[in-house]
Amino acid sequence: MFLEQGIKSQNKFWLYLIGSVLIIIASFIGQIPFSVAVLAKTLTGKQVIPTDNAAVMKIFEPNLTLFLVMISFAFAFVGIYYVVKYLHHQTLLSVTTSRKQVDWKRIFFSFFLWSFFTILSFVVVYLNAPENFIWNFKLIPFLILVVVGAILIPIQTSTEEYVFRGYLMQGFANLALNRWFPLVMTSLIFGLMHIFNPEVAKMGYVIMVYYIGTGLFLGVITLMDEGIELALGFHAANNLIGALLVTSDWSVFQTHSLFKDLSEPSAGLDVILPVVIIYPVLLFIFSKKYNWTNWKEKLTGKINVVEISNQL
């Protein structure tokens, strides 16, 4: 069982707090190249000193910005590996899946399924209001985006999944010895992590319904499937296809995507629809494909400490 793999007598919750700090430090180290590049750009007088995060993100050409920002996640991922191995004496596999090896078919199925839904959703929105979009395609910048994005965006999304649905989910299970508490806590923290995104400033806090709802969805498929493979595929598709498909002046990243959204952002059905309709549809598809049963026990049941002790 996935959560049980992290529950050991030596895995006190305070170790997860220390581990989280170490992962954050690793991420900060990975941000040094970007910070140095921004400092060099401003000191040479070629760029006005940025006063906010939005201005920082526009200092460099979009592909270079994407590359520099994503480096920090590579460092954070290394931090996860060493924290799991040396602080908790576990393998990376143990915070990935309950299976004997990573199921790549699950990752790819989830990736392509959500890619299909993402593209379909965009087509519907585009056909409904084509005047809100312009063709933004430039061959060379787009090809560079494909290469940089295909390599680094999955590292970014995987890092987040290992932190929230892997490491912290097992950590909160150690604290509460049940399943609903890790699910709720990781969903809330995941959602709140996005609170400083420019989308929140533009649309208001109602968009947190989407972020927290997405975290909850990813937590549910992790617990039901006993591993983070489906979450890895979904998250990679969400960020990569989104970066390749459409950009806007108010989004976190401005990319050399195929389309540019010129509309004024507003929180409406596009925020609520995925959480209340599309995610349940995905849960139905996953449940049928992977024969999920015993939902109540897997999502809200207690963890049997006696059984765990017998397995050790």
Automatic annotation (TrEMBL):
InterPro entries: Rce1/LyrA-like_dom (IPR003675). Keywords: Hydrolase, Membrane, Metalloprotease, Protease, Transmembrane, Transmembrane helix. Residues 142-241 form the CAAX prenyl protease 2/Lysostaphin resistance protein A-like domain. Signal peptide: none annotated. The chain crosses the membrane at residues 13-34, 64-84, 107-127, 133-155, 176-197, 203-223, 230-247, 267-286. The keyword RNA-binding does not apply. The keyword Metal-binding does not apply. Pfam families: Rce1-like. One of its GO terms (molecular function) is metallopeptidase activity. This is CPBP family intramembrane metalloprotease. It comes from Flavobacterium piscisymbiosum.
